[in-house]
Records
---
Amino acid sequence: MTTSPVILRARGSFRTEVEAGPYRWVLDEPADFGGGGEGPTPYDMLASALGGCTAMTLQFYAKREKIPLEGVDVTVTHDRQHAKDCADCTTQSGFIHRFKVELVLHGEQLTPEQREKLLVIAGRCPVAKTLQSEIRVDKVIAA
């Protein structure tokens, strides 16, 4: 499956204009890192993609299974460590990136079993599955 292209334009600074279909936004780095602080960082956007996908997956599943989920708050944090310092990682060079996804499930009628099932389902969002898969990035110079 091929998706529509996302087009990005940078002109001499970290500030990058993004175009995805009819939507427009800006990525940037904080001023502390040489940017202008005009938008979220690329890692902020990656974390938001993971969090948004998780929330949508939970809402979809709850509706389909008639689970009384009234809403969900998702907090995503990202860090990295040297692969050689990770005892349970198969990769031993470079960095291991870790995303922590914290969920607050809203719904007074949710049972403990439903909460546990929703936690399992959260890991099934397509973005989470993509981040846990082998990924290839092909780079080419276009004319």
---
Amino acid sequence: TLFRSEFLDLIPYEGKEYVVLLPADEDADEVEILELAELDDEMEEYRSIEDTAILEAVFEIFKEKFKDEFNFED
């Protein structure tokens, strides 16, 4: 199964960059946040984030940035 997501934003936080993705599932009501890791000059990978404090901080930045475009539920 191919997993396709829509790229929403790239957010720098504490010296790293995080991508915010909207899952392709039309019923999804959450975004996915992954760390963007540069492997070398031509390669990069997305890594899952275990630290909930980082996830929450990046999501708060995203919510503030897009508060006029999305209807966020608390």
---
Amino acid sequence: MNVLTVCNTAIRQDAQGRYCLNDLHRAAGGAAKHTPGRFTITDTFKELVLELSRNQDDSPVSSQAGRSGGTFVA
């Protein structure tokens, strides 16, 4: 498996190949105003997910709770 590293931060992928928004947020500096939780509730994000869902069998977004969890996106 290829490992993506951004700013010395490993970016995890789930079994479907989606990237972890939490890891990307950490690599980008981790500003509280840019947390994945705030991003995923925006209308723009919801519209993008809706559009991507039309062209894929798997959901473009998956949230996993827990210590090793996170929000994974296509």
---
Amino acid sequence: MAASMYIVVEGEDPGFDTFVNGRLLARNEDALERLALRLGVRPLIEFFSADENSMSLLIEEGAGDQELIRRLPPPQWYAAGDGLKTVRALLDALQDEPQQLGSEGEQVLSELLEYAQVLGKARDREMRWHLAVSWR
């Protein structure tokens, strides 16, 4: 099963496209977390939150227990500017040396650029967000 980390913006329709593939961000999450900690910013995974809809999808895909849904805390929402600070720090650190992340570094950099665009739009509209994970 391949994981994908994607952005969820609070509300029904943010008025802009929030889609970012996020597969390479998920695959390189450990390295990105270590890099974020070295840079003194909050790791992306700390913006993770699960809601009932995303957990239901996971359970339908056989990746969880129905009982988990009843015990889920309410979704957590974060200021888009906080996420943008992390993404920009990662971009700055990887811009000249994406190979720090191995052969997928350029593609990770591309997904981070897309995250920056989405989070910038969310920040400009004063919308909150969280990171979600899907397994396919």
